[in-house]
Structures are given as structure tokens and as C-alpha cells.
Amino acid sequence: MMVIAKLYCLFSCIKLIWADGGYAGKLVTWVYENLGWNLSIVKRSDKAKGFVLLPRRWVVERFFAWLSFDRIHSKDYHHNPRSSEAAVYASSVKLLIHKLANP
Questions:
Q1: Which of 17, 27, 30 has its CA nearest to residue 59?
Q2: Number of Cβ atoms within 10 Å of the Cβ of 37
Q3: Quick one: which of 45, 26, 31 has its CA closest to 3?
Q4: Given this model, what pLDDT does residue 97 score?
Q5: CA 32, CA 79: separation in Å to the nearest integer?
Q6: Which three-class secondary structure string do you get for the chain?
Q7: Domain locations in the chain as residue ranges
Q8: How confident is the model at residue 100 (pLDDT cuts 50, 70, 90)?
Q9: What is the distance between the alpha carbons of residues 71 and 87, in angstroms, rounded to a whole number?
Q10: Which of 12, 13, 21, 39 is most exposed, with the fewest beta carbons within 10 Å of its own?
């Protein structure tokens, strides 16, 4: 809940969050009542066997795949979480600039 509360302080314009099935339950109610956001849980069917493509899950997977193009993310070179976070920010900025320059 603390992460979502901090997210609200930084980006109060967000209206919808997609989350994994592990976050179902009280968190959905808490987010709606305290922040006014909709927390949509992405679950796989109970009848599904093997690999199942889940809606909106590809967005996160695609982002991590794009980050993996930078060599710095190939291994955990950072001993400090802040430097690891900075590397993700730097890679994200590089990716965004590339996407904006080549639409």
C-alpha cells in the first residue's frame, strides 16, 4: 500500500492500475476508497492449463524486453539499489527518446 500511496503523490492523474492476481482482495477496495483509482486484477482462468496469454500482461513483459537491450541490465552489476534504479531510469529515458525520434 505504501508504494501505491507514494505513486499517488507523484502521479495523482492516474485512474486505472492493472495488477497481478496476487494483489486481489483488500487492496482493490483500499485503492478505490482512499485514492479513487480502479485497480483491475488480471487473472488467468482456473480452467487454463499451460501457457495462457493474459490481457495487458504483455505491456510489462515488453518493457522489460526493451530494457534488456542495454547491456547494463544483463547482470546485476549494482550493489546499491539506488544505482540500479538510476540505470533503469537512464535506460527508460534512452528508450523514450528513441521512440520519439523514430515514430
A1: 17
A2: 17
A3: 31
A4: 93
A5: 37
A6: CHHHHHHHHHCCCCCEEEEEHHHCCHHHHHHHHHHCCEEEEECCCCCCCCCCCCCCHHHHHHHHHHHCCCHHHCCCCCCCHHHHHHHHHHHHHHHHHHHHHCC
A7: 1-46, 56-103
A8: very high
A9: 11
A10: 13
